[in-house]
């Protein structure tokens, strides 16, 4: 059974990125489980590179919550707005933590991430070409962990709700998750 984890990385609730992701998710089959986590509700401590501390203690608090949700998912959707041509700071922090989780023995992170699929959903105010770096970093991150990379759904908007005027993005959203059915 599929289980989608939506990692919401906007610094505001119910922004364009989240609205686009929720629109796309409505097309998922009813039996697909969904979990929505707004990173603002689960702030991570400032990242510290502890990969080489041996052994890494099992995570606690918000870090454990995010690790457990990540491992429980079959599909991870990074729903981050475009900030300075890449993901938001909370999204980047979440991804930085992946590198520590690779060293948590109990997590078996690399082996358990490999069968999963990584997706992206992003709203941006300017031209979609500005999302090249974001698309590249997510694709390369998937490749690094030997995950399947399913691409980024892009939509346009500046203030919350603008995404509803991007009818082309809404139409793309309605079939974006279709490959998940096979
Ligand atoms: C810190 C910051 C940086 C941004 N950088 C870009 C950018 O590089 N390119 C762009 O097109 N829009 C940029 N934007 C605009 C947002 O991507 C846009 O408002 C988007 O709709 C926000 O998504 P949200 O509604 O999900 O929060 C930026 C906005 C902020 C607050």
TrEMBL record:
<dbReference type="GO" id="GO:0016491">
    <property type="term" value="F:oxidoreductase activity"/>
</dbReference>
<keyword id="KW-0285">Flavoprotein</keyword>
<dbReference type="InterPro" id="IPR005025">
    <property type="entry name" value="FMN_Rdtase-like_dom"/>
</dbReference>
<feature type="domain" description="NADPH-dependent FMN reductase-like">
    <location>
        <begin position="4"/>
        <end position="121"/>
    </location>
</feature>
<dbReference type="Pfam" id="PF03358">
    <property type="entry name" value="FMN_red"/>
</dbReference>
<dbReference type="InterPro" id="IPR051796">
    <property type="entry name" value="ISF_SsuE-like"/>
</dbReference>
<dbReference type="InterPro" id="IPR029039">
    <property type="entry name" value="Flavoprotein-like_sf"/>
</dbReference>
<protein>
    <submittedName>
        <fullName>Multimeric flavodoxin WrbA</fullName>
    </submittedName>
</protein>
<keyword id="KW-0288">FMN</keyword>
